[in-house]
Fold this protein.
Amino acid sequence: MNDLVHQVKTIARQITPEVIHWRRHLHANPELSYQEYETAKYVKNALESFGLSVHTLATTGLVAEIKGNNPTLKTVALRADMDALPITEANAVPYASKNKGVMHACGHDVHTASLLGTAKILTQLKEHFEGTIRLIFQPGEEKNPGGASYMIRDGALQNPEPASIIGQHVFPLLPVGKIGFREGMYMASCDELYLTVKGKGGHGAAPELTVDPVLIASHIVIALQQVISRNASPKQPTVLTIGKIEGGTATNIIPNEVKLTGTFRAMDEGWREEALKKIKRIAEGLAESMGGTCDVEISRGYPFLKNDPSVTQRIKEAAKAYVGADNVVDIDISLGAEDFSYYSQVIPASFYRLGTKNEAKGITSYVHTPTFDIDEEALSISSGLMAWMAIQELNYA
């Protein structure tokens, strides 16, 4: 084992400049969810240059396999996401986004480049492991219903079904060099709320002639918080946030309607279903009681993400062997959402975190911000670590 992990680390060091190049190219050329056409071409060309056959799924998703000795013995899957966010980058770096209003602000460029590096390592070591490693490059992680659901629909987890799947994600709360793990429930489900409150508009100086949707919407915003404070157990992590209120045109005009948009997150599917029904019932009932109406549209998002304890324990031990026990840490639950959760609902899965923060370099911004970036030293770890995890998963009987 010591010899093989040494070989993985050696190749990983050799290809780090190439991984950095891939990441910078992807960062400079981001594409939004389900529009990753050039990204998919770039990744496909790289995979084919390693001698791999690549299959397209879900329009802009890719799947390739690295077959070791006795390839039918067992299959393990590795996943990366490829889409970017509708954010204008504020970083003054040579690899800043060339596509105005689009940015890799969540590290998907890192995930994709890292998995390409993992692929290159594993193709050079395929005589040293038994089984098959499936590479999944998916679109649309950032947008409902989630590209993972389309990849599963199109067969990414079939013929044969992998024994397990591993996902990696940047984590700017962890210093570079650290790797974070969490067993069991890790991330929340995520549903989008779209409420249209309708009333009767008119002059602001004659409210008695109107049904004020601004007032109704205000009551709904307050009342919906009771879904959490008086219905959810204090022991149950859950969040309801109204993030946008839109309506009206002037100080003295009561509009005909007001739009509310928000998000609901939970870590229990039973409570999730109950809460969504309550949200609809409260909003509709309160609007009606005040003389108006409320149309409630709920866009169903990702389920909760659960990290299989056994898989997580195994890849955690693999990480200790690769980066040292002192660099492996336990992390807390998150009310963020990730469509990797779809995979975790089908097969044993584990989603771990790659530290990317470096305070000395000023690299501290959180994901989904215009100044997000990583310490690229993380790329000297990410590819080899995932390759080593995959090999160890194949070795598990």
